[in-house]
Amino acid sequence: MEKKKNHTYQDVYDVFTRYIHNKSDINLIQKAYEFAADKHAGQIRKSGDPYIIHLIEVAYIIATLQGGPTTIAAGFLHDTIEDCEVTKEEIAKNFNDDIAEIVFCLTKIKALSHNRRHDKDFVAEGHRKIFLGMAKDIRVIIIKLADRLHNMRTLEFQTNEKKVSISQETLDVYVPIADRLGLSSIKGELEDLCIMYLHPIEYQKIITYLDQNMKNREDSIKHLQKKIADMLLQSKIPFEISARIKHPSSIYKKLVDKNKTLDEIYDIFALRIITKTEINCYEILGLIHSEYRPLPGRFKDYIAVPKPNMYQSLHTTVIDRDSTILEIQIRTYEMDEIAEGGIAAHWRYKENMKYDPKQEQKEIMEKLHWFSDFVSLSNEDESAMEYMNTLQHEIFGANIYCFTPHGKVIDLPTGATPLDFAYKIHSKVGDQAVGALVNNSLVSLNTELKTGDVVEIKTNPQSNGPNEGWLKLVKTNQAKSHIRKWLLKKNADFLRETNIEKGKESLREVFRENKINEHKMMDYLSDSVLKNFQVDNLDELFIAISSKNIQPSSIIDYLKLNRDTFEDLLIKKSVSSKNKSLSSSQAVLVKGKTNILCNLSSCCCPIPGDKIVGYITQGKGVKVHRIDCPNIANQSRRLIDVTWNPNYENASCSVDISIKANDRDNLIIDIMNLLAQNKVGCNKLISKKHTSTNTTSILIAINVIDINHFNNIKNQIINIPSVYEVERVTH
């Protein structure tokens, strides 16, 4: 690619003074240039050029897009904070707060680009922050794209490693942004440069092929161009016609995506016809199709259905009688301006109009409906890799366009369903969706949508909402994220209600033991009880009891409701088996007594060999806990000495353990095989994957004979590949 001649400040001045005439605005730009030249004095780029050349080139690109004086000034100043020890406050003092904020945002983005670790998650997180940094102000995007374009033009002076990493970042981050903003000239050049550095052999083959083989094809195109021009002249429709050659990067993508050879690509050349009105566009299309046969499936009407970047044009591919295949684009002058300048064509600086960046940002989100998704995704609770995948496949890669009944265009990835459509409109619409009409026909929510479909979502506020099966019905990460959030909230609400009822039942039990029914119990639970135990309401009290943060006995003690001493209680209400000794039928005995019922506590799962202690319940004998169990830490009045029964013949006891591991395939299978080999029973297994850390937590209940048996199994589990922690669990 030819090295372009460096521009001068005079070149920049000549461009922006075509549309900026206000003396104070011209002085602002002049002052920014002089400030930057002074601060960067003596700095040299790797190309050998003075650093100010880079800033002039950035400002020149912005000026060709007809950026405003603030944007051009910020373009001159965008590296001063990072490279010249200038502060944000200094820029604000010398210029204004608006320019200072833009330069500050650009500085943060550049800092992220500099740290190019090869870890995928780190790179994705950096890219997410770059996207979100640019999304705050459209002017930041324009300046950053101009900055990246000139850096790519001078990339030849970097190391090979940097050429590859910078080109890949440009392809992943900046090319999609330029494309979605409709900046086709910037997008095309950036993409060509990326392919040149990332795939140099293939790029050179394309350039060589074009040099050697395009002469004959060019002659055919010129002949066809003249024939079409003669035909349109007779119709007296105003027009301009020109031929263009595809970007090398576009040719490369066709070679890769469609697995073709260079000789099999027939639309390397294209004709562009520009006319005055939309009606003229369709008239010209009709004339061309009446004279030349269109290729089936190659006609696209982007006038009726614009692309998400506002691009409008008619595309058709025709074949001449001599078998020349040619793509033709037909558009109005205004459409052509937008096709080349995209967003810049809509928001070019207009003198004598007060500039309002917030209003501009609002208009952008209204005009480019995908831009609000681009920003709102920053609030999604997902990993950086998921965020990048969502951007690339669902925003930058969207390629089907459907309509609401009111005519609003909704862009979606291939394979999307009405449920994806519903969540793209609003999360509430998705959550309440019960059916869909596509082109006035009732369809299921998993129907695959096509471009041009008119989709109406039927909702019901009383519906049960999403379920796990919905995750299989949707294609987009955006919809999946909303569904997961809804399910998590539903599960949290269910868990809260469960814990409230569990805590309430625990309290009911101790009140019943004190011969107080539930109705009277609620009378006792006054504001003074809530205040004493530092909870706001009864639900919070029951949750605290369920989670063992408050013991029911503590409430009984606070209310002074104890009727018997614990020793009397043990004697009066302990369960015996009609004078039959329990000494051989239970695992634990109370020291000095043979007919006291002892049960192993489920919260800490004691097993023979553990140090244990007994907790006297009211009417249900003794609950046996491990001596370090936190649930009996403050219950010294009810504790009693117990011992393991040496005559107990039961084969095993259940114990809960927690396993933490780096996630991998067949992890659960390896754990279950180990237990089977050791003839260890398993009562339950709950596994949870943590996507953000790529780890897995497993809760498992196993049957062991004693503490030695448990330690042996524990040591074997910790040696399973990827397992890094095995611990007993206390509930």
Q: How would you describe this structure to a colleague?
A:
Helix content is 49%, strand content 15%. The chain starts with 8 loop residues before the first helix and ends with a strand. Strands 1, 2, 3, 4, 5 and 6 form a six-stranded mixed sheet that branches. The chain has a four-stranded mixed sheet with strand order 13-15-14-16, with no helix packed on it. It has a four-stranded antiparallel sheet with strand order 19-20-18-21, covered by helices on one side. The radius of gyration is 37 Å and the shape is elongated. By secondary structure, it is an alpha+beta fold. Helix 7 crosses helix 9 (138-153) and helix 11 packs across helix 13 (248-257). Among the domains are: 9-183, Hypothetical protein af1432 (Orthogonal Bundle), CATH 1.10.3210; 202-341, Beta Polymerase, domain 2 (2-Layer Sandwich), CATH 3.30.460.10; 564-650, no CATH class; 653-728, Alpha-Beta Plaits (2-Layer Sandwich), CATH 3.30.70. A hairpin with a 2-residue loop joins strand 9 and strand 10 (441-443).
